[in-house]
Write a structure and sequence with these properties.
The chain has about 110 residues and is of the alpha+beta class. A hairpin with a 5-residue loop joins strand 2 and strand 3. It contains four helices and four strands. The termini are far apart. The chain has a single domain, classed as Conserved hypothetical protein from pyrococcus furiosus pfu- 392566-001, ParB domain (Alpha-Beta Complex), CATH 3.90.1530. The protein has a four-stranded mixed β-sheet.
Length: about 110
């Protein structure tokens, strides 16, 4: 796997997941939309494959951007195989779930 960089990607150029409308109704995407509005971007950019622009991770972040009416979003471009893309998605989901039950903290 190789991270090839970051790029402003037109959301309409992506093949959005079939459940994007359902994601846009969900609590997580709406919280992400609020965060995007307040902070002007995400701390962790969604990732897409360099060669075919397939979304690897960040479907809810993309849904949040759509809720906010954005047409472009900064994304990480990754060069990887199908197996590597699947592993990245699994790892991100496992990491997020492992931290979902902890209360949010502001570090000063």
């Amino acid at each position: 796997m190789l991270v090839a960089g970051h790029e402003e990607v037109e959301l309409a150029s992506l093949e959005l997941p079939e459940d994007i409308q359902q994601r846009m109704q969900g609590e997580n995407a709406n919280k992400l939309a609020t965060s995007l509005r307040l902070h002007g971007g995400y701390i962790h950019d969604p990732a897409i494959r360099l060669d075919d622009r397939r979304i690897i991770v960040g479907r809810d972040r993309i849904a949040g951007a759509l809720i906010e009416g954005l047409t472009y979003l900064t994304m990480k471009l990754v060069q990887c195989s199908d197996a590597e893309a699947e592993q990245l998605e699994i790892e991100e989901n496992l990491h997020r779930r492992a931290h979902d039950d902890r209360p949010a903290m502001l570090i000063r």
